[in-house]
């Protein structure tokens, strides 16, 4: 049995997940993620795929986040016509997120071409369009958790709950030739043990090779009770300052966590004094998807027989006009808006209208990749540029690390410890500092044969 795994993305970085699995006769893409983190990094999305499109027989996605799924429309645009296997809730979320990504690509190209026209340069094409994304959705194949599906002859896939976001999966791939069987387990993105909404990740017992994310391999999340106290204190201080609270949040996962926690701590945090806006059309659709698939997790996020979060002062603003009206509110608004790393979306308009105000509070509740506006703000920049205009950063900036949808070092080590046979584990989806720290802990605590994966590296399973 000859099985080869090639690492093509999310090696030494946390975006652009992409791996190629080759058997004697077939090739499968595991993940097809978008590279994020500034213009130079994102330009790599236009590079050729690591093998000819016509050689790809199937695609497997662990979950809907764009750094794992966001190049699927490009793959289809370039000629891929095969199946794309993923968990059924993930397919629903991709129906929301991929067209939105295509729309943003079109807007980015439009903005860039205006600048190019002024300088006499040739226009560029968007990476892919909203129509490309919508066309790709017909190739998705929905799979339930724990259902066994053959993706190509001799290769089966089974998805297990990863506890990261709705539909997120640990991918179990089995290879059989009638004589031998080999098992590859890919962690996908693993959830945090104290996640407000999602269930804990499934823990496999056996594998021949493991691919494991390492996003927070160098840190321990603070105790969840302390995170709740910190959030409560932000609302208390902001109320005294009589300003607005801006929360740039990932529209899938973090937004629903926040809404649940606000409902859970509504009286304790004095939220009755605020007006809560979910200013994100995609976040609204994603929240409706969480309502549709509420059977996949145990927390009561919604009211009885309702698709709305259980909050009395909650407003969803779908249209641009509704979003613009929020900017007339000078005090008492909690505004949850995308994007989570502040690389685009409606949060830019709210930053423009609030970031210069000392009474404003900016609450960072998720990972901020290198090269993003969010990372620059977290690192302490005193000014930002939006649409060619410069704005001073006078708002109070709070980084709430305990709300991560990613497991910390303890979660990752304990997840790997569930493997009774201590298989080789290759670390992906992490920056070097996090990967090196996790590598040392895996080796010292569990004597694990751990390796940091490198781009272009090929291994035999």
3D structure, described in words:
- This protein has about 450 residues and is α/β, with parallel strands linked by helices.
- It has two domains: about 5-220 and about 405-460, 4-Layer Sandwich (Metallo-beta-lactamase, Chain A); about 225-405, Rossmann fold, CATH 3.40.50.
- It has 13 helices and 22 strands.
- The strands form four sheets. A seven-stranded mixed sheet has the order 6-5-4-3-2-1-22.
- Strand 13, helix 8 and strand 14 (about 315) form a beta-alpha-beta unit.
- Helix 4 runs antiparallel to helix 8 (about 280-290).
- The protein is globular and about 70 Å long.
- The mean pLDDT is about 95.
Please, what is the CATH homologous superfamily of the largest domain? Ribonuclease Z/Hydroxyacylglutathione hydrolase-like
Unreliable stretches, pLDDT < 50, 5 or more residues?
none
Number of helices: 13
Using the coordinates above, name the CATH class of the largest domain: Alpha Beta
Strand content: 15-25%
DSSP strand tally: 22
Query: How many strands, which pairing sense, and closed or not: the largest β-sheet?
Result: 7 strands, mixed
Mean pLDDT: 94
Structural class: alpha/beta
Number of domains: 2
List the helices and strands and how they pair.
Blueprint lengths: L3 E6 L8 E5 L4 E4 L8 H4 L15 E3 L5 H4 L2 H6 L6 E4 H31 L11 H7 L3 E4 L4 E5 L2 E7 L7 E8 L4 E6 L22 E5 L10 H18 L3 E4 L5 H11 L10 E5 L1 H12 L21 E3 L3 H7 L6 E5 L9 H8 L6 E4 L8 H6 L4 E4 L2 E4 L3 E4 L9 H9 L7 E4 L3 H15 L3 E3 L5 E3 L1
Parallel strand pairs: 3-4, 4-5, 5-6, 10-11, 11-20, 12-15, 12-16, 13-14, 13-15, 16-19, 20-21
Antiparallel strand pairs: 1-2, 1-22, 2-3, 7-8, 8-9, 9-10, 17-18
Helix pairs in contact: 4-5, 4-8, 12-13
